[in-house]
Write a structure and sequence with these properties.
By secondary structure, the chain is an alpha+beta fold. It folds into 2 domains: 181 residues, Ribosomal Protein S5, domain 2 (2-Layer Sandwich); 152 residues, Alpha-Beta Plaits. α6 runs antiparallel to α7. The chain is globular, with a radius of gyration of 20 Å.
């Protein structure tokens, strides 16, 4: 018998950054992210649990993608106790992204969260479980997704999510993310994220390598403490729209700290491009001149996420077209927004 499942899962953009891990995909510090909408992965998984021969086939945009297989097989090995049928199954995975792969827009977050959703759904089918997903179900999916990509744990929740234990949030956990949308003002739930694609090329240093470099960084402990402080501050200021200046200050500091950490180790590397720096400088000048509450953040890559309230969308998008598209590869900009989380495809 063959089982199938298809899910759409979004990427996310971290506001407080996770950088450094230990054990089996456990974070050195907590992180907080906006869940996106337009940047997502559509994935279909087909599983034959008792096939004549077990195996894995991976397709991306309909084309065979054997380069993805090693990471997925490692992911499956971490799920052997949870999904024992994986060891004997023939598995076919086909996915498509709406944004460039491996360019620093958290494609692993959307892909691994989509895969976790498909696998959990198929496991329920195999067990004959037809219940509607509840809080525990989503927490388990987040835990599964974490084993494939730490940031994927946050993509399964709408609007905003936090991953990693911190004393400021007693229910927080290193094992799974928790939803935060109920704790933030509607003002932030409608935020826009215009992503300026400075480069769509694959990153020169992967996030996995970057996390590993933190183990020998002399500033690591200070950075982790700073993340705990910032997540508490950000959680408080996002309860209302009255403290957007502090939101901007924390978010931009977190973004630049992330890239400073990359440049501060024994094996320094730079993922920003000249266009990245140019966009940041132009944005700061624009904000100083207009007073509009727009800010930047960066993931582990060169592309710039520009965050701003919905009510300023028209003015800011026009300014992007007039002043910033020149710094983008082939003029590419992805206009996204805070989103409602994953959905199951028909």
């Amino acid at each position: 018998m063959t089982y199938s499942s298809s899910w759409r899962s979004p990427s996310n953009i971290a506001l407080v950054k996770y950088w450094g891990k230990h054990g089996l995909q456990l974070p050195r510090n907590p992180s907080l992210s906006f869940t996106l909408s337009a940047c997502h992965t559509d994935m279909k998984v087909m599983v034959s649990p008792e096939a004549d021969s077990a195996g894995l086939q991976v397709f991306y945009e309909g084309q065979p993608m054997p380069s993805f297989e090693a990471k997925i097989k490692t992911f499956f090995s971490h799920l052997a106790d949870r999904f024992p049928w994986l060891a004997f199954a023939a598995v076919e995975i086909d996915s498509v992204n709406t944004f460039p792969h491996a360019a620093g827009i958290a494609s692993s977050a959307s892909a691994m969260s989509a895969l976790a959703l498909c696998l959990k759904d198929i496991d329920d089918q195999i067990k004959g479980i037809a219940d509607e997903p509840n809080h525990a179900w989503w927490s388990e999916v987040s835990d599964i997704a974490r084993l494939g990509s730490g940031s994927a744990s946050r993509s399964v929740f709408p609007h905003a999510a936090m991953w990693g234990h911190t004393p400021a949030v007693p229910e927080s956990s290193d094992l799974f993310a928790i939803p935060c949308g109920q704790h933030i003002a509607p003002f932030y739930k409608s935020f826009r994220d215009s992503i300026l694609i400075v480069s769509s090329k694959e990153k020169s240093v992967s996030s996995t390598q970057g996390h590993a470099f933190m183990d020998e960084l002399p500033y690591a402990a200070t950075r982790y403490a700073e993340a705990h402080r910032n997540i508490a501050l950000l959680g408080e200021c996002m309860k209302t729209e009255d403290q957007v200046a502090q939101f901007i200050s924390i978010v931009e500091s977190e973004a630049l700290q992330l890239h400073a950490l990359m440049m501060a180790g024994a094996q320094p590397f730079i993922l920003m491009e000249p266009g990245t720096i140019a966009i940041i400088k132009v944005l700061w000048q624009f904000r100083e001149k207009t007073g509009l509450p727009v800010c930047i953040t960066l993931d582990a890559g060169p592309n710039v996420h520009m965050l701003y309230p919905e009510k300023h969308e028209g003015e800011i998008r026009q300014w992007i077209d007039d002043s910033l598209v020149q710094y983008c590869a082939s003029g590419q900009v992805i206009h996204d927004q805070v989103g409602a989380g994953p959905v199951k495809n028909p």
